[in-house]
Amino acid sequence: PTARLPVPGYAPLLVCTDFRRIGLPIFYYQLPLSSPAQVRLVQHTLGANPAFSLNIRSIRLEGVWGCALDLLQTVLVAQKSTQLHRLESFDFCIDAHAIAPAHPESDLALFCNAVVLLPQFGTVRRLTVRKANNVYLNFAGPASLFDVLGEAIEKWTCLVRLLQDSLLMYSTHDCFGTY
């Protein structure tokens, strides 16, 4: 018997134009991105087809990468231009790249700029912060990221909950007013 190659997740989109029309919103609903190369490819695709950005509800990053800034800027511009703000969830993992202190052009500094953009969406209600096993939160990099995150959360009127290492911490605000 011959081994079958795994079928990529986008394969149904290639069947016909009807499948593509129906499947694209589902395909872009949640973006699980596991490498900086994937982030850059998705950002390039969204830059060429801004309408795809309108389907994105959730972004999950498996690392702290500077290219996330370009991705979020692309999604924000597309969603603001149509006044359809739909991004609801942002999830990221603090990985070994985030250990060193941030200098202005580092991935960590660019990612911190991306985090500052999140409140501007006006619809991001859920933030999940995870960490890799080899990362300690008292290192300079994660500490500076949490400083920036703390400042961003103060301006974040729609954040309903922050998930950090499976602990729920509810905010004092939601999109409809104060508790």
In short:
The protein is α/β, with parallel strands linked by helices and 179 residues long. It has five helices and eight strands.
Structural account:
The termini are far apart. With 179 residues, this protein is of the alpha/beta class. The chain has 5 helices and 8 strands; from the N terminus they run αβαβαβαβαββββ. The longest helix has 15 residues, at 68-82. The relative contact order is 0.11.
Mind summarizing the main beta sheet? 6 strands, mixed
Topology pattern, helix = H, strand = E? HEHEHEHEHEEEE
Shape: globular
Terminal residue distance: 62 Å
Sheet with the most strands: spatial strand order: 1-2-3-4-5-6
Helices and strands: which structural class?
A: alpha/beta
Helical content class:
25-40%
Q: Average pLDDT, to the nearest integer? A: 81
Radius of gyration: 17 Å
Portion in strands: 15-25%
Poorly predicted residue ranges = 166-179
**Strand runs, count:** 8
Number of continuous helical runs = 5
